[in-house]
Amino acid sequence: MIKNRLVDVLKVQGGDFPHLLVYGPSGAGKKTRIMCLLRELYGPGVEKLRIEHQTIVAPSKKKIEINTIASNYHIEVNPCDAGNQDRVVIQELIKTVAQSQQIQSSTQREFKVVLLTEVDRLTKDAQHALRRTMEKYMATCRLILCSTSTSKVIGPIQSRCLAVRVPLPSKEEVCSVLTSVCKKEGLLLPPELAKQISDKSGRNLRRALLMCEACRVQQYPFSADQDVPEPDWEVYLRETANAIVSQQSPQRLLEVRARLYELLTHCIPPDIIIKGLVEELLNNCDGQLKTEVAHLAAYYEHRLQLGSKAIYHLEAFVAKFMAIYKKFMEDGLDAMMF
Amino acid sequence: MKKSSLEDTANSRRAHNWVDPSFSNPSDERFWSGKREDKQFWDSQPECERSRKRKKDRSGFLRLTKSIENDPDEPWVDRYSPCSQGELAVHKKKIEEVENWMRGHTNPSKGGILILTGPSGSGKTATVQVLSLELGIRVQEWTNPSSVEPYYGSLPEWRLKGSSCSSQLAQFQEFLLRVNKYKCLKMKGDREAPDNRLILVEDFPNQFYRQPCGFHDILRFFVKNSQCPLVFIVSGSRSGEGSLHSLFPKEIQEELHISCISFNPVAPTTMMKVLKNILYMETEKQRHKSLYVPDKSELEMLCSGTSGDIRSVINSLQFCCLPDKGLFTLKKPPAVQLERTVSLSKQRRKRATSSREQEEHQAIGGKDVSVFLFRALGKILHCKRGNCEGANATKGASGPGLPFHLLHHHREVLLVQPESVVERSQTSGEFFSLCLHQNYLDFFSEIEDVDRACEYLSDADLLTGNWTIRHIIGDYGSSVATRGLIHSNSCQLSVGFKPLHKPSWCLVSKKHQNNSLAAQSLFRSFRLTPVSLLTQLLPYLAKLCNTTRSQAQIAVIQDVGQMSLRRCSGRLKLENLGDKEMGQEVEEEEEEHCRIEKDLQVSQSQLTTNQVLLEEEDLIIEEYESD
Predict the structure, then answer these.
(1) A229/B465 Cβ within 8 A
(2) How far is B562 from chain A (nearest CA, A)?
(3) CB–CB of B540 and A210 under 8 A?
(4) Quick check: B293 and B317 in contact, CB under 8 A?
(5) Full domain range(s) for residue A95
(6) CATH code, A22
(7) Whole-angstrom Cα distance, residue A6 to residue B43?
(8) Which of B243, B231, B194, B227 is nearest to B43 (CA)?
(9) pLDDT band for position B342 (50/70/90)?
(10) Are residues A158 and A175 in the same domain?
(11) What is the DSSP letter of B402?
(12) Whole-complex ipTM
């Protein structure tokens, strides 16, 4: 239904392809497409997946445990699971995969595929290691790198790969996917609800499907104007933003801090918290402030990456916003008075 | 010849027997084996030898007068060790507490365990010794066997006492068992040798620090069939009782009904009394010699310098009373001189003297002054500044004031030195900043001030964020945090007492890690990146009623995916920071942190020093290839 440009790539190249860098926002269908490509290459055998637990010994004699998902033809790994040892994982894993030959190279392709996810979160170290490994084992394996953006992938890797951007599906596409899924499930989805879900999902297809399922749990038969449930943390974050806007005082900041801690314990990454906060806060503040707030958010998001303890920077952002917002409101009041 | 050698071996064997002291002949003074030290405290045995190690061997004065003749250079700590309750430099209530416990647990010969804690030199051991002397209890003390011992003996002898080869742990267990089981043999010569025994353990076998479980098992066994009380002395430094927590966790304390009495550092007044007494007696005795007698102010200085450690106070007293004045006299605080200079403000004078005092303490056998975390935080948060008049007076001296456009940055003179406060709090600067961050909001009234303080804290985190240069720049980080906080609080609220809390960040980050690890491992089959798993899938899974999932998965879904939308949730309980608590738990956290960083460092250093490791790596690669 949704066009797979990756398979086109395959057709152009006549069954072979260069290293790929597939990028696009979350929920756009990167992995789905990659799996389609693999099936096109190797047949239905790639769908027999098994989870493997591998132990890799770093040169420092430290054991790194990592989980991989593999079929007979490909192996999928998220090197970031190993934290700052991702370089070792990349080197060792690709080396072992590339050194073992395909069993039946006559009927199958003569290369294996290594699928690396979250390449943008790799350390610079690991990315350089990847660059060398890519050249070395080109004969026996192909790499498919999967990331949300290319901005954190170093140039040498980008130039060695064929970059394929996977955009988010349009709202209409989301709607049609939802209706077809519901049809398969034997459910009747009113088009209004499908529209509402696709609006709220932000064109993220995974999210849209999850929302649809949650709607089903909430109420069936669907009604056209039913509430589309949102994740708890988003609601919580919105309430937090409202709390910030409604009052600016040290006590309120203390409450906000408790809420931030709560979000952090629920494993919401700090950069997503700050992004969510900004979006909510921007809705609530005057146009004059918007640039300043956005600038602040960018500033503190950067610090978040540099520093080690997120709460300092989150709180500094909130405090700064409070101070600016309070000053703005007071100035506004003064202007009204005179 | 042969006979005498036989006798020798017999003697030496006796020395390693368990029940020796009662029939060891008086001339055989060295009747302590490597395994333990028996001490007897009855006045009827004047030949009972004094301790070689510490002042804890309290003995009667009768003996003391004798020993002075023998050994004029004996440390005063040993010479003037207390021998009655009145002489103990411990608060009466504490002595009473220990006495009650000892009475309660010795008479019906039922066992029990007591832990005495407190800083070193607060009189824990002395109290036990004096009380056991008064109550007529034999003290059996465990000392760690030294591992060198067996090599000194000849080979057959070494074989005979096979126990020396067994582990410390086994020896300790055996010691407890035997002391517990067997009474002292009664001999004719002993007058009213007391039946009551008390086991004193001050030296813990090292093994226990690493594996406290084994220790707990031994304790359990002991409690089950104990006949005599067991006293542990854990002399924690002031920085929290780290070993106490690992050796005697709360559960064990409750399970075995262990009572715990903690001693405070010796109060300065008591200390003064003791010092004066000692001085008086010394001057009486050594009238013929020229003894330098320090005056009262010097004594006070000694007392305040050692933070309640009576042993070190007495030592330093003896040291500074040495007749050779030219080298070791204390400098008198130049108060007179200061009083003359009227132009100095009151506050500044105070500061000058206090800082000078500190230097003096360092000069003569003093300890580093340490401050409890609670107080250190208070010093920064309630930061005390000089009052206005003082500032006006000093203005002339310190040069022209700030120019007009910077006038809003003007603050009064600080009375605390933030860097030294951090240093004395005995925690890392990073942890100190975390504590400050946890608590500073209570002390601010204006959001603008909070904003600036926050920015400084954020700056401090940036400074300490880079681990490669942390050892250099860490101090600057804490300096930025503390000074930034102090400066940005423009209108200091005069808040009263505020409870301080432990930083929640450590707990939060640990939970964050654990939760995300658990989620990732349980939901691996979805093949999602952690971010989309945690922000998209799990929250929705929480909304779907899924019965097909495993118990663990459901638990994680409920824990991570669902959030209670009420205003404040009770999940994060604030832990109050105790009065005398140090950041012990968090220290562990830090250690963990450090370990991670060390690993990181290892991996990084491998990059840079690849050359060095090349040989080793080559080997490994060869192995790979041969495979």
Answers:
(1) no
(2) 6
(3) yes
(4) no
(5) 5-165
(6) 3.40.50.300
(7) 98
(8) B194
(9) very low
(10) no
(11) -
(12) 0.85
